[in-house]
């Protein structure tokens, strides 16, 4: 059977198990016993051997699942729980102030359903009654957890008929929800949390900030020289760049973890009081959105081939970028090619409002690239 050694679990493989069973049968019944694979005894050895080999493989899988490097799903959540971490769950997307029109004083009850052009369903959050002019505004949330983009001024289809309600129009682009934290992202956050107990260093501060609710990403720029650096960080200072999370909790964490005498740089300033009730200004930066646009020309593989243009736009708009990550034009081919039936003739990208070019988009260290579905143009030749 398998052995637990100082290098890990070493399972017994099927060929070794078969050899041991054959040797055992020969000791009992003699060396002249017929153990060919198609013989009755050979068949029994094969069945018993496969059962034992499956158990050995199960033991190996369980052993590997105890290692965070290999654990997935619930097993990874159990390992991360020892560090006080839980997986970030998915959240709903929201449509705010949707304009509803119909007959005056029509009451529409919460749970009423509309759908967007992508066939995603949205539920009315609260009861609403149309006014004397036959209109009202109300909030809707996505029926399912996750990211569901909808543009402003989008007509929504009423799925549940309500007498007197005839029209729904989005006022703003959807507030995009989050997908559940994936295993690779969760594992990365777990590994970074190992620095949590470090005192007064950048790694420890990053780990602590990553544990705050709703924090998506943290980057810290450090300048240990006596002159401002290329990122405009002053001498002997740090610049915390953080996406998501509560301002005060962030400031409090930075104050508690930064090294004494280290300067802080950033456009967001929050006052935190120390143990002597002295006000301290804690500065950090929020990354700004860098809106980008995409122009795409496609050629059909065959004449009259149907191409789902909207699916291409949705796939591109759902791409995510890290703080300061440039938009590499070659990366866009992956979401584009999720849809079939064409080949790409032209692909140009640029910051919104700038000339389109077939080259990468440089993103500032304090920006996050974003491609909205309305800024994607797809032409089929």
UniProtKB/TrEMBL annotation:
Organism superkingdom: Bacteria
Record's protein name: Baseplate protein J-like domain-containing protein
Organism: Pragia fontium
């Amino acid at each position: 059977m398998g052995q637990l050694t100082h290098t890990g679990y070493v399972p017994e493989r099927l060929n070794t198990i078969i050899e041991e069973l054959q040797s055992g049968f020969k000791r009992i019944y003699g060396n002249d016993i017929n153990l060919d694979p198609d013989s009755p005894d050979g068949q029994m050895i094969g069945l018993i051997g496969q059962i034992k080999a499956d158990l050995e493989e199960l033991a190996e899988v369980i052993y590997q699942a105890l290692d965070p490097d290999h654990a997935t799903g619930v097993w990874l959540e159990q390992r991360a729980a020892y560090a006080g971490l839980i997986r970030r769950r998915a959240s709903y997307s929201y449509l705010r102030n949707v304009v509803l029109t119909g007959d005056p004083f029509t009451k529409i009850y919460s749970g009423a359903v509309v759908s967007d052009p992508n066939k995603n369903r949205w539920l009315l959050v609260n009861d609403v009654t149309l006014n004397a002019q036959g209109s009202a505004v109300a909030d809707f949330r996505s029926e399912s957890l996750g990211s569901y983009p909808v543009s402003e001024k989008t007509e929504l289809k009423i799925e549940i008929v309500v007498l007197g309600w005839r029209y729904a129009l989005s006022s703003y682009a959807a507030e995009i929800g989050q997908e559940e934290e994936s295993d690779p992202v969760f594992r990365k956050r777990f590994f970074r949390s190992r620095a949590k107990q470090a005192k007064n260093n950048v790694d420890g501060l990053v780990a602590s900030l990553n544990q705050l609710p709703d924090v998506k990403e943290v980057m810290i720029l450090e300048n240990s020289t006596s002159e401002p650096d290329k990122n405009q960080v002053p001498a002997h200072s740090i610049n915390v760049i953080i996406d998501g999370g509560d301002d005060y909790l962030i400031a409090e964490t930075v104050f508690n973890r930064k090294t004494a005498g280290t300067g802080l740089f950033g456009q967001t300033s929050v006052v935190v009081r120390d143990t002597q009730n002295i006000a301290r200004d804690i500065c950090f930066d929020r990354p700004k959105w860098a809106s980008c646009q995409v122009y795409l020309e496609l050629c059909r593989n065959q004449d009259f081939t149907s191409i789902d243009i909207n699916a291409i736009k949705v796939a591109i708009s759902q791409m995510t970028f890290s703080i300061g990550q440039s938009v590499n034009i070659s990366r866009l081919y992956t979401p584009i090619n999720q849809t079939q039936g064409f080949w790409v003739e032209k692909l140009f990208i640029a910051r919104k409002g700038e000339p389109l070019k077939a080259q990468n988009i440089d993103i500032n260290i304090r920006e996050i690239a974003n491609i909205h579905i309305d800024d994607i143009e797809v032409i089929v030749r």
